[in-house]
Amino acid sequence: MKFICQKDTILKEIEHANNFTSQRNALSINSNVLLENYQNTLTIKSTDTKMGFTTSFPVITEIPGATTVTCDKFQSILKALPSTDLVFNDESDMMNISVKNNTTISFNLKTIAADRFSTLLTCEEPFFPISQRDFFDMIRKTSFSVGTDETKYFLTGVYMEKNSDGQLVLVSTDGKRLSISRKVFEQDIPEFKPCIMPIKFLNQLMAIGTGEGLLSLAISGGNIFAEVNGHSIYSSLITGTYPSYQRVIPTKLTYECKAKISALLDGVNQVALCVDSSSKKIFIELRQNGLLLSSENAEIGDAKIMVECEYDGPDTVIPFNYSFLQMPLKLMEGEDVKICFNSANTAMVVTPEPERDYLYVIMPMH
């Protein structure tokens, strides 16, 4: 096998492919990437058995063929070479990588026969298109609050369903906070079985996508498939029963406070400078004349920041993890935020004001 390709073109795709390899075991065939070179097209495939990646792009084919190389080392070699045309020549279980018309630079990398490479999954269900920008926005508004406790594996991904209103819904929770994003897409979304998507799959989907145009999704046989910007990827879905997130959202909320998103976020960031790093606890004290944020650290000191707000209720002090409020505020659109609650010991519901298509439920600390 022999082909010629521009370094930056192949490096970009190998960087994507490397995220789908089994990097924990360098001796496994799944740490390799498959290169298929036919009819002036190079197809790259990689898999760690749970996820898979495929892409194709033009090259100059001199000798057709296929082989595999260790993806991580292949990527490192490509990074070290100049941004120009490179020649890839596979002979006798060794790939020679050199700069075209330059005899001073040359690498040799061992190969493994292509027929030993794992077979990638194929999708049996039809794909449906959705907006990259809108879907990625939903992912950003939910992915940060997934769980990290492997004993509750079903919480380590983002739950997706189509609700009775025709909205696509993404949900994430770690048991202490809940993020929900709902959206009606211009594109028709067919009925599908609700699923739990691994966070790694969503991160790679966003890394490959541009946020412009459409991507296509399909759910088939315990896997989710996506086609985006000339790339095909898939992942096993997370098994388990996702908790009924609707039950977590309070149906009746007695008190509400409205403040400027920018002012509240600045206040949270400032008091966080004096927070106890082990607990991350700060206090939000709601008063008739404003919202007081405070934190204290026995070794450093304390901080108090008053933020203007609209509030008509009893003086209430709510302790919470500052990062649980910090991230939603960073992602919110508009000028105002509304915090609704029943008491200092019950869940707070945080939404943009006016309400949009997402909300956050935050449990106070005790």
Secondary structure topology:
Blueprint: E1 2-6, H1 7-18, E2 32-38, E3 41-47, E4 51-58, E5 60-63, E6 65-70, H2 71-80, E7 85-91, E8 94-99, E9 106-112, E10 128-131, H3 132-140, E11 157-162, E12 168-173, E13 177-183, E14 195-198, H4 199-208, E15 214-220, E16 223-228, E17 231-236, E18 255-260, H5 261-271, E19 281-287, E20 290-297, E21 301-307, E22 309-311, E23 316-321, H6 322-331, E24 336-341, E25 348-353, E26 358-362
Antiparallel strand pairs: 1-5, 1-7, 2-3, 2-6, 3-4, 4-17, 6-9, 7-8, 8-9, 10-15, 11-12, 11-14, 12-13, 13-26, 15-16, 16-17, 18-22, 18-24, 19-20, 19-23, 20-21, 24-25, 25-26
- CA-CA gap between termini: 65 Å
How large is the count of helical segments? Answer: 6
Task: State the helicity in percent bands.
Answer: 10-25%
Largest sheet: 13 strands, antiparallel
Low-confidence runs of at least 5 consecutive residues: none
Strand elements, count: 26
Mean pLDDT: 94
> Beta-sheet strand percentage?
35-45%
C-alpha Rg (nearest Å): 25 Å
Strand order of the largest sheet: 5-1-7-8-9-6-2-3-4-17-16-15-10
Shape: elongated
Structural class: alpha+beta
GO cellular component, one term: cytoplasm
Subcellular location: Cytoplasm
Domain DNA polymerase III beta sliding clamp central: 130-243
Family: Belongs to the beta sliding clamp family.
